[in-house]
Specification:
Oligomer: single chain
Largest sheet: none
Order of helices and strands: HHHHHHHHHH
Organism: Catharus fuscescens
Subcellular location: Membrane
Transmembrane segments: 136-152, 172-194, 206-227
Protein name: TLCD2 protein
Domain TLC: 42-233
Number of helices: 10
Distance between the termini: 53 Å
Strand content: under 5%
Radius of gyration: 18 Å
Shape: globular
Number of strands: 0
Structural class: mainly alpha
Amino acid sequence: FSPGLLVVAGSFAAFRLLNRGLERLVPPPPSARHKRWKWVLRTPGGKRGTAGTARHSQPLSPCRFYLHPELSNDLVSTHPPGAHSLVAVSVGYFLEDFVDMLCNQKLHQSWELLFHHSVVIICFGIAVLLHQYVGFALVALLVEINSIFLHLRQILLMANLVHTTCYRLNSLINLGTYVVFRMATLAWMTRWLFLNRHNVPPAAHAVGTAGMAIMTPMNVILLYRLLRSDFFK
C-alpha cells in the first residue's frame, strides 16, 4: 500500500466537492445554460479554471525543479515528498475529470479526452505507486500550462465573445504556449526516452513510448484544429 494512494483519493474527493459547490455558486450566461456542467468547470477558480486553482500543476511543476535541483539530473529515481504529492494530486484530478465526462457527456463526444486521461492516469499512477519517474511526470505536467489559455478560449466561446479583442489576444497566447509547453515538451520527452532507452527498464520504457506515441498525434491534431478555427477561417 502506498501513502500516495491516500493523496490520490483526497485529491479526487476535494475536486468532487469543489465541483458540486461551484455548480451552485457560478451561474452560467444564457448562451451556456445548456452546458452548465462544462461552464462551471471552466470558470476561474473552477476545476478546470483559468486561475490555476484546478489546473494545479502549471505553476507548481517548475517550482519543484527550482526547489529540488536534483530532479533535473535524475528524472527516474529522485522523488522529493512535495514532488511526489504533486503527481498524486494530478492523478486524483484526472480521475475526477474522467468520471465527470462519463457522467455528463456521451461517449462519442468525449472519447478523445477519456483516452487522453486514461493514458495520463496510467503513466502518473506508475510514478505514484513505484516512487519512480516522478521528475519525468513533472516535466509532463508542464504541458498543462497551456490549458489555462485553452480553457479560457472555451469560456469565451461559450459566452459568445468570439469577436472580441480578448478572444483574439487569448488566441495568440494560446498558440504560443501550445507550441512551447505542449509540442516542445512532448518532443523533449520523446527524445529523452530515446536517449535513455538503455537506462530505463523495458516495461517502463514501453509504457512511456506508448504514451508519447498516443499523446503526440493527439496534440498535433488539436493544434491543426486550433489553427483552422482561430487563424485560417
